[in-house]
Amino acid sequence: MTEMVYGAVPVRDGEPILPKWWRTIDKWGMFCILMLFAVGMLLGLAASPPLAAKNGFGSFHYVQRQAVFGFVAIGAMLLTSMMSPTLVRRLAVIGFLLSFIALALLPFFGTDFGKGAMRWYSLGFASFQPSEFLKPGFVVVSAWMMAASAEINGPPGKTWSFALCVSIVLMLALQPDFGQACLVLFGWGVMYFIAGAPLVLLVGMAGMVVIAGTVAYSNSEHFARRIDGFLSPDVDPRTQLGYATDAIREGGLFGVGVGEGQVKWSLPDAHTDFIIAVAAEEYGLILVMAVIILYAVVVVRSLLRLMRERDPFIRLAGTGLACMFGVQAMINMGVAVRLLPAKGMTLPFVSYGGSSVIASGIAVGMLLAFTRTRPQGQISDLLGRGRGR
């Protein structure tokens, strides 16, 4: 009753699910996600035909597959966004447990598809990457643990979540998949910071990351090769970074024209990790800036809505999902312009890949569910700043 008096969203008894969902959902955020998927399909038309020809498929084989993956992802996003936070948490716990087991079994049953990293299960007709589905589940489970630890006589949730984080990071590093390991550690660190972590502890963790990176550089040829390539003042024009750099330079402001780009014929990962290079070459800086703005709108709007949320679990989980989504996009584009070492990380909703796009759909669906407008959702009421106080 207090929230109804002081301006929270009114409760409409017996309101059907769809009208209630439409009234409370972040429509601009959802629209931006749909636009990102549309951009991904557009770029897929440009980037995937060379790969299809190389593998003996029809020109639009991978575009058609991506369309199927995308519609499944959008369906999963819409369905998840209609769920209550409690139901989302239950879904996340089940998904996390299954993905964690799958990740642990990768060394025994997984494959590297000749890329030097054991990250996938081969299903014959497709592949499955457990780490993509693990990320959203881990964020929600960790947020649940951290929120529970703040309750009176609550469990040591922060310690438990840290133990989970370390175990996941170690398994990812052993694949090796240092990019996903850093992303998981970043997501946990953001939530831990919001939950009230002391600054000294965060600085100590940053130091541990530097030490771990030094050890990895000394003992992993895969890791050392990527770091050396990044630090080298000269870029080998025959490497993926070299091709991507040339493509971005050629694209300029308006691009060379639709279908006129050449990087897709040279880059083996033009349709996945380096798809932004295809966008920059054919459509120029204009499209790249549009893509950046779409990601920024999703993240910023989500964070602004979460700032008004007073449920600690929703606030932590939503912030972790939003930040991880935005940082993954930053890492992918940062690698393409040589601001970061090569990571092997997809651009959410834009890059080709079934596991990536479907897992992104589930993650964003969870984020949309957490950022829906709800009664008792204003943190200003809790702090005594509501109207009439």
The quaternary structure here is single chain
Q: Could you tell me how far the N terminus lies from the C terminus, measured between alpha carbons in angstroms? A: 15 Å
Output the strand order for the largest sheet.
1-2
Outline type:
globular
| Amount of helix | 55-70%
Instruction: Report low-confidence residues grouped into runs of 5 or more.
Output: 1-11, 385-389
Helix and strand composition category: mainly alpha
Beta percentage is under 5%
Could you give a short account of the major beta sheet? 2 strands, antiparallel
Mean pLDDT across every amino acid position: 85
Radius of gyration: 22 Å
Number of helices: 16
Q: What is the tally of beta strands? A: 2
Count of the domains: 1
Secondary structure: elements and pairs:
Layout: H1 2-5, H2 17-24, H3 27-47, H4 49-54, H5 61-81, H6 85-109, E1 121-122, E2 127-128, H7 130-149, H8 157-173, H9 178-194, H10 199-219, H11 221-231, H12 240-251, H13 275-307, H14 312-336, H15 354-370, H16 379-382
Helix pairs in contact: 3-5, 3-13, 5-15, 6-7, 7-8, 7-9, 7-14, 7-15, 8-9, 9-14, 10-11, 12-13, 13-14, 14-15
